[in-house]
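ESCALATION

Customer reports they have been waiting on this structure for their group meeting. Please prioritize. Original submission:
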Amino acid sequence: MPELSQQHIFPYTDLLLHDMGEGLADHREEFRANGRQWRTPPLWGLGLTARVSGHTQFLHDGRARDVLEAILWHDGEARDSRDAVIAMDRGRRMALLSFLNSL
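Update from on-call: job pushed to the front of the queue and completed.
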């Protein structure tokens, strides 16, 4: 399909495995992932979750009720990023969440 070639996509992911800390660990190894590692899923379509899936449950087990709660569950390799979101003033945090929900 030549009309689909040469397109740029922005999936907003690195598709890599990351140690997400003990709070998200399920202690089950799967292929090369140990029980604390998760693959970063694409964030494109994140803002359509409720409309498409009929819910706003996030993370591998649905424990996060919204995007901010999902961010707050991150630890391990994502601790610094989580802490940066926590340190943001309300305006910056709302702008971040607005961007994420626009994907």
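Sent to customer with the following note: The mean pLDDT is 92.
Escalation resolved.
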